[in-house]
Amino acid sequence: MSDAGPGTLRVPDGCHAVEGRIAAQDVAVVASRYNADVVQRLLDGAVARLVERGVAADSISVVLVPGAWELPLACRRLAEAGGHDAVVALGCVIRGGTPHFEYVCSEASRGVIQAALDTGVPVSFGLLTCDTLEQALARAGGSEGNKGAEAADAALEMAGLLRALPRGSRR
To answer: 123-146, pLDDT tens digit by residue?
Structure first.
């Protein structure tokens, strides 16, 4: 884990913490087939982490999409359909010589968070946006860890946290 990654916080005196236990029974993983050699490592890391955290393998749905651009639509459909406690989005975009990288990264990012915000289902972000293949491989089980496993952890934690947070009606 990098120094800038998740850490431990101390709740100030007089306050109380609301934390969700890592919990989910049914998780969907949406994986992009583009840059498949990298995404396969993210997928393997995510599924291994989910199973390690107690999600039964037969309760993990893996949905394959053509590329990062298609991640948000599949994530949203799965979140809207119900039955999944969380959705994990996995993909890899590597910078090329055109502005295409910026458009794909920006819109895929926006769409993934919008799926979560609109449905209330945690959708974690495991989309690598790297300058080089070497950077991507380092983040897909190499020297920088496995961001697929980290995205799985985030999805499980958010599923538990949302169960613990109060629900209210909008006014």
So the answer is: 999 999 999 999 999 999 999 999
Instruction: List domains and CATH numbers for the chain.
Output: 27-163 (3.40.50.960)
Query: Which pLDDT value is given to residue 110?
Result: 97
Nearest to 117 by CA among 72, 152, 67: 72
* pTM metric for this prediction: 0.89
The CA angle 38-132-142, to the nearest 5 degrees, is 50
Return d(Cα 24, Cα 10) in angstroms, integer.
25
Partnered with residue 30 across adjacent β-strands are 63, 89
Query: From the centroid of its chain, how far is CA 91?
Result: 10
Q: Which of 113, 116, 85, 89 is nearest to 23 (CA)?
A: 85
Q: Which residues are known catalytic residues?
A: 100
